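Dear support,

I submitted the protein below through the web form. The confirmation email said the job was done, but the results page showed an empty box. After a refresh the structure appeared. I'm attaching both so you can tell me whether what I see now is the final result or a partial one.
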Amino acid sequence: MDEAPARRADWYADPLGRHALRFWDGTRWTERVSSGGRLGTDAVDAELAEFLAIRGGDPRARWPGWVAAVSVVVGLVAIVAAGAVARLADGDGGGPLGSLAAGALTLYLSLLACCWAVRRALGGTSRGMAFDFGFTFRPGDLAWGLVASLAARLGAVAVLLPLALADEDFVAPDAQGVEGIDPHVAVLVAFTIVALVAAPVVEELFFRGLLQRALENVVPVGLAIATGSVLFGFAHFSLAAGQANVGVVVATGIGGAVFGVTAHVTRRIGLAVVGHAYFNLIPVLVVWTQ
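What the results page shows now:
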């Protein structure tokens, strides 16, 4: 582990991110804090404070560059495999729901397995998988997540509008691919859980917590966000959608870019997960009301 940088006793940005400033006494972080000009106290985990100071305030694990290459390959293979499995399920009489479930299960298990395998291979930290991937939340995430979601939606509309004017077949409704789902309440509840919980958690862990994080160590941040966003967009490609895949891939890719920016700025994926869930809320509402 690298040595913590020598610094004189003074107020510095709180490495824990809970306050504006925290006092460094020359050897360690103290419980003295300041927010908005008001002094206070907030107990600090000395080990975590040192860890954050060494890492420049970023608590996430540092995935090496080769993880980026592995993640891209795994992501592409998982996307193709999910599409193939979904098509087989539909051909075997599974219908829209069976096809959607089979494809999603294949994709999510593959992405989760990659995250788990990388952390296992590299050891991670002693604080657990959630800590290493920045899977932490703050109270303000509910509000800022909504803002991120709206930004993603507005960005998607701005890009999709010219496409719709050129050819309306390029733009699909939010519920594209889930038409014909059994209106039984249990089925709708299952779809809602997947869209609002499973998808945001698994996809943000992989695309922002692993892929983008690893890419940021070898390429400029903008390129890292763009690469993760493009792959994220193609993860929502559906053979059944036809030309409408253009709109689906573009819209979700723009959403991925917004979530990628939030992950980079906040140095965690909690806010991106919340924003992602809000983003998926519209198709969920469409399915419930169709």
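Response: this is the final, complete result; the empty box was a page-load delay. The CA atoms of residues 154 and 199 lie 21 Å apart.
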